[in-house]
């Protein structure tokens, strides 16, 4: 029992881990610039040149934010939206909603797009009604930012 009491007393005297009262940082007007210029996070440069099929998206992160490259390509298909990359549910839902809004704007002719010509049978008669551009192509969106999941309040 006496040994247990001695151990408790020794434990009370020990400094908690990570506490170092001898270490002190003094920031003054003379050394302020040194601390402000320190890069805590690596920042990738934003492309200043336009590239067809690539746009910059903005994302919220716990340490501020980030710029995401979003790649888009139109390929022959049936009007489907294909999403690749490590996207969270919010970003997937936002892409689907945006795709639907564009279809509505095309139907209302708020946005203009060429109609795909009708197919003709062997006798030259129209076989199918002219396709809307979004029914003739698939849209493939890809966010190539590694395996970082994109989700949360700014994912859309």
UniProtKB/TrEMBL annotation:
Name the UniProt record assigns to this protein: Endopeptidase La
Annotated ranges, domain Lon proteolytic: 49-156
GO function terms (MF aspect): ATP binding; ATP-dependent peptidase activity; serine-type endopeptidase activity
Source taxonomy: Bacteria, Pseudomonadati, Campylobacterota, Epsilonproteobacteria, Campylobacterales
Region ranges (Disordered): 1-22
InterPro entries: Lon_proteolytic (IPR008269), Lon_Prtase (IPR027065), Ribosomal_Su5_D2-typ_SF (IPR020568), Ribsml_uS5_D2-typ_fold_subgr (IPR014721)
Domain of life of the native organism: Bacteria
One Pfam family of this chain: Lon_C
GO biological process, one term: protein quality control for misfolded or incompletely synthesized proteins
